[in-house]
Design a protein that fits this description.
There is one protein chain. The protein is mainly alpha-helical and 88 residues long. The protein has 4 helices and 2 strands, in the order ααββαα. It has a two-stranded antiparallel ribbon. Helix 1 packs across helix 2, helix 2 packs across helix 4 and helix 3 runs antiparallel to helix 4. The two termini are 15 Å apart.
Length: 88
Amino acid sequence: MMYFIFWTLVLIGAVFLLYKNREQDEDLLVLKLFGYYILGAFYFNLNGLVIPLGFIVSLFLRPKENKSVKRGAAIFGLVMMIIGYFVR
């Protein structure tokens, strides 16, 4: 339970920092950042070979606003996926 609370606070803190570093005002940016995080953390496990499928998909997305912030959320999701894979 303590780990869940810790990682939830880390996620909320990271999204808050990304939101503060936005370049332009955008509708529902916080929800989009959570979406990019989830996309970056999505992976496909193929007989022990972990393929970060969500992060690869996020590389092909071309947002018009706040590109660097959204890319940062996807990279943060990838980092959290890697940490979660090795910690378990």
